[in-house]
Amino acid sequence: MSATLRLLIADDHPMFRAALRYALGEIAPGAQIVEVASQSALEAAIASGGEFDLAMLDLMMPGAMGFSSLVYARGERPELPVVIISSNEHPRTIRRAQQFGASGFVPKSAPSSVLGEAVNAVLAGEVWFPSQKADRDEGDAQLADRLAQLTPQQMRVLLRLADGLLNKQIAYELSLAENTVKIHVTAILRKLGCHSRTQAAVLVKGLALDEDGAGLHDDALRLS
């Protein structure tokens, strides 16, 4: 595997990132690995202009809402393959990851051999998911289609709107003029077919993980 590969690890647990970095170093010797620990850091890494060959993304980071980080990454860099690596390995979670644009899904409990199989498959342009996927859900498919209409900047605004931030607070966080945020909010509501900020926020809640298993954040690893 080429030593010029650039890999992005997005996970808020330092010990898990260290274990994953070690495992990826064995799979792709010489690869450059960048680590981030939050949604905002993920946005900064992707927006920096640096080209990545693969992103390994956890679903539970500060500032993220379920699949929001995946949707953001896919919207910002559609060409970047994203592999979800999560302790929530329920069949519906796996299926939703696929519907929201992931190229692969690796349970955090998986051994390094499985991680290597998934990484190699995705880098070869294939997809890799555990076999126990649930059936396609039309509601998720429609949500994915609606969110795909948003620009990356509009997605950033929407995520903060869903957190209950006011326009001036969003403007401060994103270094935008307040009037620019207002224009983005208007465009977001129109594209999503929503009549209010509250309705848009409720729509984004559809990206949240299921309650059943959503709190499972056991980072006990078998990546060695």
From TrEMBL:
Keywords: DNA-binding, Phosphoprotein. Residues 143-208 form the HTH luxR-type domain. SUPFAM superfamilies: C-terminal effector domain of the bipartite response regulators, CheY-like. The keyword DNA-binding applies. CDD domains: LuxR_C_like (cd06170), REC_NarL-like (cd17535). The keyword Phosphoprotein applies. The modification 4-aspartylphosphate is found at D58. Residues 6-123 form the Response regulatory domain. This is Response regulator transcription factor. It comes from Lysobacter gummosus.
